[in-house]
Amino acid sequence: MQPAASDRETIRNASRLVMTTLLYTHPVCQDHDMGEWHPEAPARLKAILKRLNGDEFAALDRREAPKASFREVERVHAPFYVEAIFENIPQRGHVHLDPDTAVNSASGEAALRAVGGICAAVDAVVKGEADNAFCAVRPPGHHAESSAAMGFCLFNNVAIAAEHARHAHGLERVAVVDFDVHHGNGTQNHFFRYRDLFYASSHQWPCYPGTGMEHETGVFHNICNVQLRPNSGSEEFRRAYGERILPALRKFKPDMILISAGFDAHIRDPLAQLRVQTEDFVWLTQELMEIGAGECAGRVVSTLEGGYDLTALSESVAAHVKVMMGS
Ligand SMILES: [Zn+2]
To answer: How many angstroms is it from 84 CA to the middle of ligand 1?
Structure first.
């Protein structure tokens, strides 16, 4: 006889002494290259993976990110757009899709593996193969619109993963928390009209891409934007979450939490002017893990977005993943 769902949950919780954290990545994500001087460079992932090879990360369960299917990608993107991305992939050199987003020969596969990694992480966490997961993938995703590449992003990895969680696993309510310094316009636009999708973002204002005002609340008050002034720091960042985003997330009662983990709000980052410290990312990750444990059996999947100072990025990712591992 099968134990009841609530009993299975109790058994699963009781067997958790150490958190098992998955790490999804793929070598092709380092081959995607947008040009010699582009800040969203392969060196970012190289620095992160070098740091995550340290002894304190020996317990990470490392898995290769699979390629997503077109069917998965097309839950968020128009089929003509997906086709156009692959038609634009050059054999050599670069093709620009917008002023700051380009593709090279590896970009198509890298984009499919970035999506596939986070969808596989959702599968593994929902099935209970691990407690949570971090996806060290690129290209990032949160600026990608249904039919437009922008802001270094090709496919909206996190929005596709949210739809995957709903369609493949029957989860009803999926939340995305986005602490990248830029607003995730693509994620917000996809989520805007869905009662059961929640998107929250803290971001510098004014700043690229120019969306994310606080009156943009979604049709069902399912969007929560907090604008942070340039030069604001730890206190304002923690207040944004403590007073606005985390209460809204708790109220939403997610079945799963996805994190758009961009580390470009860091004080050392060259692309923006917030003064957030590594300890603030640690604090926020702890808060999100706690809400995950209370609301959705700890089902948390985090994926890399921005972060352009290699030292700040690798240290911040390491600190974020350590919290996920419970160490
Ligand atoms: Zn960013």
So the answer is: 25
